[in-house]
Amino acid sequence: MLEESIFINEDSLKDFMKKNYGIQVIQIKKITRGSANIYSLNNDKYILKEYQSKYDESSIKKEVTILNHLNDKKMPVPKLIKNKKNELYTKHKNRIVLVEEFIKGEVRGNNTGNLPELIDSAQVLGKIVLALEDLQIDLPISNVKEWFSKEKIEKSILKYEELIKTVPLNEYSTKIKEDLQSKIQMLATFKKEIPVDDLDKLTIKNTHGDYNVQQFIYKANKIKSVIDFAAATKMPIAWELIRSYSYIDKKAKNAEFNLKNFRIYIQEFCRYIPLNNYDIKYMPYLYLMQILHSDYGYKQYIRDTSKTELLEFGFFRTKLCKYLFENAENIIKSINQI
């Protein structure tokens, strides 16, 4: 849930823009999207993003630096507006505020992409990862080894066992309990057989960290901009690749891959960033272990039974877990045909 805005009314926002950016605001429209309070200004000329208090200045500096770097390389990302101090962000009432040029286009939901749009997504990801190779700051490193550790697995099993005890009695009760029990069983299997001997040999790259179709703004069926680099990190690129495919292909909407499309997706990405044999070997297992540990959707619904949309997303990801668990080796064989 978003925190209350620091702008208590339209006049306070107008005063902020005039004082800090020299921009006279005549129109304000609230946009309900993402993890920030977002406003469209002056009939979609500017976007103002007011970050929640949990985001400290260092994390925003990271995103600003990345956007500036990618803009210099002509990548399709938002363009930041400098304030009167020639800075790319403004600190106001203990919050960080960014002002960007408004990007006109279409926002889409998960699993809506056709083959040309899959190709476009894979190529844009490849270009962004390539452009980030000479980024002048160190991004946080994602410790994927932890996903496979016995300690992490045992902790997640215990978490699900406790969560099952709190499931409300209604029409979803049986399905929720079955899903959580399935996750426990899959995690228990990996506790006995953990395929992590060569994780150090994965290709590690600077990347978006949350690259998916809901982060794209489209124009004429092409990606005009990729937004929200707050999760940018250094991690195995194989994870970002398989995860982004699973959210865009309309033929994967039932949590099962179209292996022909997936091969094309990887092939197009590899025009910019090559993968090695270990990336392919561990690709489905990386994604599987990441979502096996996540109780997202279930936890939120158990706390508030009005959140059925989040619960449906949890159902989707557990179905995806089962698919990856049962078909990992077939996915690897299919990729090896490239």
Please provide a brief summary of the model.
With 338 residues, this protein is of the alpha+beta class. The protein has helices at 10-21, 57-72, 115-131, 150-164, 173-192, 237-248, 259-269, 277-292, 298-303, 308-335; strands at residues 28-31, 36-41, 46-51, 90-92, 95-101, 204-207, 216-219, 222-226, 233-236.
Q: What features would you describe in this structure?
A:
By secondary structure, this protein is α+β, with helices and mostly antiparallel strands. It has two domains: 10-101, 2-Layer Sandwich (Phosphorylase Kinase, domain 1); 115-335, Aminoglycoside phosphotransferase (APH), C-terminal lobe (Aminoglycoside 3'-phosphotransferase, Chain: A, domain 2, Alpha-Beta Complex), CATH 3.90.1200.10. It has helices spanning 10-21, 57-72, 115-131, 150-164, 173-192, 237-248, 259-269, 277-292, 298-303, 308-335; strands spanning 28-31, 36-41, 46-51, 90-92, 95-101, 204-207, 216-219, 222-226, 233-236. The strands form three sheets. The protein has a five-stranded antiparallel β-sheet, with no helix packed on it. Strands 6-9 form a two-stranded antiparallel ribbon. Strands 7-8 form a two-stranded antiparallel ribbon. A hairpin with a 4-residue loop joins strand 2 (36-41) and strand 3. Helix 4 runs antiparallel to helix 5 (173-192) and helix 8 (277-292) packs antiparallel against helix 10.
